[in-house]
Amino acid sequence: MDEQLPDSSPGSRPGPFLGSDAIEAGLLTAHDLRTRYRAVYRNVYLADDVALTPGLRARAAWLFAGPDAVLRGISAAAVHGVNWLDVNAPAEVVRGNRRAPAGIQVRSYALAPEDICDMDGMRVTTVARTVFDLGRLLTCADAVPVLDALMNQSGIDRETVWSLADANPGIRGIDRLRMSLARANGGAESPLESRTRLLLRHTGIPGLQTQIPFYDQWGLVWNRAAMGWPRWKLAVECDEEKDSAGCRVWVHSHTAELESYGWTVVWVTESMLSGQNDIVERVRRKLLAAARRG
Questions:
Q1: Each residue of 117-132: pLDDT tens digit?
Q2: I need a surface site. Which of 50, 112, 152, 173 has the fewest CB within 10 A?
Q3: Domain 191-293: what homologous superfamily?
């Protein structure tokens, strides 16, 4: 377990480690642990100057639960690369002993060997099994953004996930999984894009697509719209409101490029989704205006 000790990765910021192993190996003293590190879980420490992330919380939970445990659910999603998850959400593991401290949710059920993979030395549910579990157990609104991210990063398709329903007859949450999978879309590149796409379903106008390509004179993709209606040349883009001059320049240049092809661009921000802006009605009006022109 040397790779999990504090100074095992020269030149890189250390992750969680077992305090007892560090002391036994002579790398740290009990005083060091008290003064330079904080406990994420019992006997699992992280340096005081290292920010806890969903991925680091997942590793900490796996170290606490033991090498036979399997990370599942949100923790598995974090290990598979979804980095915007709530760092304060409880870690999720599967193991026989269901006793666990606050901050770890333990489930005890059988996982097929093909549902488990190795990620950075940890046992983790595969992408397919992770999507399967999150789609079953979370509400549709909570599940879809995470499913979008996992599908975007891995390229996994719905059929692969759905095949697990046949392999696990009688498992709960299949109706919820069916709804979440139907609404998931690997074209989303952020939670804001996921929520915007779900909201725009209420326009009642079919044909909404994601990651719409724009081609140059040689037939190569030179730009993409996050989502929109190609028939009506209406794009909906998500402004993540990043605090950088480069981001603001990109927003303006991207708008100009799409408009040069005769498209109308509607921008959506996080504050607009959570506020009183009637985005659906605004988009519907622009679509109807485009239809009248066409």
A1: 999 999 999 999 999 9
A2: 112
A3: VSR Endonuclease (3.40.960.10)
